[in-house]
Amino acid sequence: MISTFKVAIILGIKDKQKFIKFGTVGFIGYLLAIFMIRVFRNAGLPEFFSWLYSTEIAIINNFVLNNIWTFREAKIGGLKKTIIKFFQFNLTSAGAVAIQSIFGPIGVKIVGVNFDWLVLAVVVVFLVLPYNYIMYNVFIWKTWKVPFLNKLLKRV
What is the DSSP letter of 138? Predict the structure, then answer.
C-alpha cells in the first residue's frame, strides 16, 4: 500500500511538473518584485509606480526563466524570434501589470506598507497566477490548443 502511494505521488508530481516549475519561477518573480517595490518606494517613487516598475522587472525575469526552464521543450530560440516573443509575452502580461499596479497600492492603502508582502502574495496567487498561466500556455508557448481562438487568430 505504501509503495502504491509513493508511485501515485511520484506520478502526480511528474504530471504536474510544468505547473510546479511555473510556480517556482513565479515565486522567484514574487521575491524580486517585493524587493523592487521596496527599493522604488524608498527611492521616493509613488506607490503606483513602485508596483508598476517592480512588476515589469519580475515579468522580464519570468520570461527568461520560463523560456530556459519551465517551457524548455518549446524554447524560443534565435535573437529575432526571442525579441518578438518577448514583446508578445509582455503584451500578454499587460493584464498582470494592470492587476498588480491597481490592486497592490489599494491593498497597501488598506493594510499598510508593512504588509506589502502579503498584499503582493494575495494579488499574485488569486489574480495574477491564474491569468498568467492561461496566457502563457495559450499565446506564448502555445502548449494549449484552443480551437475557437485558433480560428479567431487566423482571421486577424
Answer: I
Length in residues, the chain: 156
**CB atoms inside a 10 Å sphere around CB 121:** 14
- Residue-level pLDDT, tens digit, the chain, 156 residues: 566 666 666 666 666 787 788 789 989 999 999 999 999 999 999 999 999 999 999 999 988 898 888 877 777 778 898 888 888 888 888 898 999 999 999 999 999 999 999 999 999 889 988 887 787 778 777 777 777 666 666 665
CA 109/CA 59 separation, integer angstroms: 24
Cell numbers 524587493: residue? 35
Neighbours of 51 (CB within 10 A): 31
